[in-house]
Amino acid sequence: MRKINxxxxxxxxxxxxxxxxxxxxxxxxxxxxxxxxxxxxDSEAKIKSLVASLKGVDIDKELESASLVAAAPAATAGExxxxxxxxxxxxxxxxxxxxxxxxxxxx
Length: 107
What we know:
Blueprint: H1 6-18, H2 25-34, H3 41-54, H4 59-78, H5 91-105
Helix pairs in contact: 1-2
């Protein structure tokens, strides 16, 4: 069995929340064990710390505000820079202007 990192405990908590289960020590231990990870004394301390830090937190509200913050820079980063449209003369006008310029050279 392998040990899991801190973020994986958070993923486990989010999974429980998404499933409508209570995010508590016992449920987190179950998710961690089901994922094939080792639940040792170090894991238990991390789980207790996570549960304590989530006490009184509205996870839905936090996820909503986090996704709004993350989406704002992505929207502006994805936009292509606005190009100024140059008024281009039709090709006929360009040819006429070029012909006039050449005639001025040869008098």
